[in-house]
Amino acid sequence: MTERHFVTGNKGVSLIELLVVIAILAVFAGGGILGVRFIASGNVQKASQAISSALSEVRTDTMSIKAQWEVRIYNDGDSNKVSIYKNGEEHDTTELGGRIDIKYDNMQSVSGILEENQELIITFKESSGIVGDIQYGRIGEGKESVMDKNASGFKITAESGSRSCGIIVWYETGKVTDDN
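Structure (tokenized):
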């Protein structure tokens, strides 16, 4: 027969060792949460900059290149996007991200969140570059003007959690400024 030998003195894991492992895991989890928040903050800022850039580009193109220009900010069901259209044809598109909410406010009576399959369409007047119209509605269907002539501008905000970054399109000048 074979003899069995048992190791003595192995009493398992001490409470202090267990607490140290839990503390290390808590530090890693906290770092992961902060990293996700940092990334979300950067995405919100990028989305706001992409919208601002598209609006400024279309305003300039409207005054210098003879064509029908418009900016469309929309949610296609997967993510939010901003597109530049020239004579009804998509010219350039930037994806803003799926975890970002796009809010709009005409600074008077209309405000909301860009829902799935809905879009904002912004146009500028050829001769002056001032805002021509801002329309809102479902993609591919009729739109309703949300531009209020009694207001001074239209606010568009990219938001994710507690992070937000906004811009204002001023009706009388067509200029786009940060709202931060």
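The radius of gyration is 26 Å. The domain at 15-178 is CATH 3.55.40.10 (minor pseudopilin epsh fold).
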